# Entry
Amino acid sequence: MKSKTDKLKLAIELVPSTSWYDNLRKYISKKDWDKIRKRTYVEYGHRCGICGAEGRLNCHEIWEYDDKKHIQKLIGFIALCDMCHHVKHIGLAGILSSEGKLDYEKVVEHFMEVNNCDKRIFEKHRERAFDEWRERSQHEWHVDLGEYKDMIKSASKKG
# Structure
């Protein structure tokens, strides 16, 4: 049975610790990343793909996880405002907050506003996300860059 946290517009996405920093941006040139980033912003009308905010945007990778085969596959990109991006990476948001670089409560408030929910729903969702992260972090993941893996081959041929 699905709970209210399964229907959230803005959800926390925690990358397993065993595949931190293993992403497309790491493998391609800044020029190629900028093409993807700018194309993504155009696709989303220069607005956040979740809350619709205008202004500074982040190009966020969308991953699909096969928890049986431990394959993490890149399936696309979404334009996100800073606050939605902080929610997606709530673990990093916590670290930035502890360093005085981010107001964590504003991130939580953004989550609640976008999802039209209360703090209890946020806490339940965060707990489930970290449980899933702990489980996934016990395994080595094969990172599949999907349709974007050819960009690496062409980038390495140039270099």
Summary: The mean pLDDT is 90. Strands lie at 57-66, 71-81, 142-144. DSSP finds seven helices and three strands in the chain.
